[in-house]
Amino acid sequence: MKLEEQKVQELLEYLTNNPIYPPPIMNPEIIFRSLNGSPKARVKPTTSRSLLRFFVRESARQSQMIVTEFIISKTEFHLRKRATMEEMLVYQRLSEQVNERIKRR
């Protein structure tokens, strides 16, 4: 098994014990501030996929795993593939709420 694949599996195992369905943060204002706290101001719309990637990245950071964007992307892909329609709808609604805050900015 390649190192990248091993890291993806480790992150998926971590997320099995620390699930991100439903999203760990449901408050769109907090998410907006977290996204906007980066050096680049958030101006492009947020999607359910980008929110899922955001939470995967945050989970990796909390677990103190050293991962690349490639590993985060692969992990997000696996999670999205396994997710139910209801689980992804929660992310979709949340992304719409975050986008409302982006538009008001």
Layout: helices, strands, pairs:
Blueprint: H1 3-17, H2 28-36, H3 48-63, H4 69-82, H5 85-104
How would you characterize this protein structure?
The protein is mainly alpha-helical and 105 residues long. The chain has one domain (3-104). Helices cover 70% and strands 0% of the residues. The protein is built from 5 helices and no strands. It has helices at residues 3-17, 28-36, 48-63, 69-82, 85-104. The longest helix is centred in the C-terminal third of the chain and has 20 residues, at 85-104. The chain is globular, with a radius of gyration of 14 Å. The relative contact order is 0.21. The model has no long low-confidence stretch (mean pLDDT 91).
Question: In summary, what is this structure?
Answer:
The N and C termini lie far apart (46 Å). The chain is 70% helix and 0% strand. With 105 residues, the protein is mainly α.
Helix percentage:
over 70%
Structural class: mainly alpha
Stretches where pLDDT falls below 50 for ≥5 residues?
A: none
Beta-strand fraction estimate: under 5%
In total, the number of domains comes to 1
C-alpha end-to-end distance: 46 Å
Number of strands: 0
What form results from the Cα inertia axes?
globular
Instruction: Spell out the helices and strands N to C.
Output: HHHHH
Oligomer: single chain
Which key phrases capture this entry?
single chain, 7904_t:CDS:1
